[in-house]
Amino acid sequence: MENIVVFITASNEDEASKIARALVEGRLAGCVNIIRNIRSIYSWQGKIEDESEVLMVVKTQQSLFGSLSEKVKELHTYTVPEIIAMPIVEGSEDYLKWLKEVTG
């Protein structure tokens, strides 16, 4: 089992909360942190955008990424939501054991 952290941005805290609850309730994530007041500058449809967003930090297993991604796309208001993952290289043995128990 490989544990991962997934970063997902959303337009506001309500949307992020809705997505986070669905992921945890569906056992697609063990925990989702929601970080308010981030500023995103990005290129979209030929323009440079500068927007306020929130960031979700999702802890899960790599084997669940496909299902997690589909659930996010189903609930998200963005046409192309940011859903990117990075491996957890090290972690508390107790935390990683708990993560395995509550996901999948």
Q: What does the secondary structure layout of this molecule look like, with pairings?
A:
Elements lengths: L2 E8 L2 H13 L5 E14 L2 E15 L3 H11 L7 E5 L5 H10 L2
Antiparallel strand pairs: 1-3, 1-4, 2-3
Helix pairs in contact: 1-2
Structural key phrases:
104 residues; alpha+beta; Alpha-Beta Plaits; 4 strands
Query: Tally of extended strands?
Result: 4
What proportion of the residues is helical, as a percent range?
25-40%
- Architecture in CATH? 2-Layer Sandwich
**Cα gyration radius (Å):** 14 Å
Strand content: 35-45%
Q: Distance N terminus to C terminus?
A: 11 Å
Class by SSE composition: alpha+beta
Mean pLDDT: 97
Biggest sheet strand order reads 2-3-1-4
**Helix/strand order:** EHEEHEH
Would you tell me which CATH topology applies?
Alpha-Beta Plaits
Per CATH, the class reads: Alpha Beta
Low-confidence stretches: none
Shape by Cα distribution: elongated
Q: Give the helix tally.
A: 3
Largest sheet: 4 strands, antiparallel
